Automatic annotation (TrEMBL):
Signal peptide: none
Protein name: Transglycosylase SLT domain-containing protein
Gene3D superfamilies registered for this protein in UniProt: 1.10.530.10
Pfam families assigned: SLT
Domain Transglycosylase SLT: start-end pairs: 130-202
Record InterPro entries: Lysozyme-like_dom_sf, Transglycosylase_SLT_dom_1
TM annotation in the entry: none
Lineage of origin: Bacteria, Bacillati, Actinomycetota, Actinomycetes, Mycobacteriales
């Protein structure tokens, strides 16, 4: 008959020995694996470390705001300066009026001068008195009336004596009693002062 207590003791001892053996074997395996892992890690450490660093740098920190590229501010708009206005071209001076060198031209020129000086008179009034006094001859002279006897004969288109011409000569015209325009203007100036206008003269004056 087998002693159960001895059998149980033998089995327990055997189990403990097997467990111990298994544990030792497992420890050996772990040591070998650890050694291999260390060797492998040692061989590739610089490269792996560099890869890890690069990956870490490329990963933004938790909670960090993403990098935003600076966008240059747009240049302020500058309104174009208005083109300078061209200076207006000066008005050309009117060409001087050309008068015919005849009785009609002399009267018209005299009337323009009289208008500038404020001397009254009309074409008809001037022409009528010229035809009576000299028949339109600018070189006409009276050598028989009282003025001629006194040494101051009447001269020109409107038969003006020298003292009267000198007193009523109009500035801007030649100081020449024989000049037909000067003669007309001076005579009309005299008639304006004495009769109001050459238009009011109908006889010797």
């Amino acid at each position: 008959m087998i002693d159960k207590d001895k059998l149980s003791t033998a089995i327990g001892r055997r189990s403990r020995r097997e467990a111990f053996t298994v544990a030792v074997a497992a420890i050996g395996l772990v040591a070998v694996a650890a050694s291999s892992a260390v060797s492998f890690a040692d061989a590739g450490t610089p490269e792996r470390a560099a890869m890890v660093v690069e990956q870490a740098e490329s990963i933004p920190a938790v909670g960090a705001a993403p990098a935003i590229e600076a966008i240059p501010a747009p240049a302020p708009e500058v309104a174009p300066e208005p083109a300078p206005e061209a200076a207006p071209a000066p008005m050309p001076e009117p060409a001087p009026r050309v008068y015919a060198d005849n009785l009609d031209g002399w009267i018209r020129e005299a009337l323009d001068i009289m208008a500038e000086k404020g001397i009254p008179g009309s074409y008809e009034g001037i022409h009528r008195n010229i035809m009576r006094e000299s028949s339109g001859n600018p070189q006409a002279i009276n050598l028989w009336d009282i003025n001629a006897i006194n040494g101051i004969p009447s001269k020109g288109l409107l038969q003006v004596i020298d003292p009267t011409y000198a007193a009523y000569h109009v500035e801007g015209t030649p100081f020449d009693v024989w000049n037909p325009v000067s003669n007309i203007v001076a005579a009309c100036n005299y008639a304006a002062h004495r009769y109001g206008s050459m238009d009011n003269v109908n006889s010797a004056y």
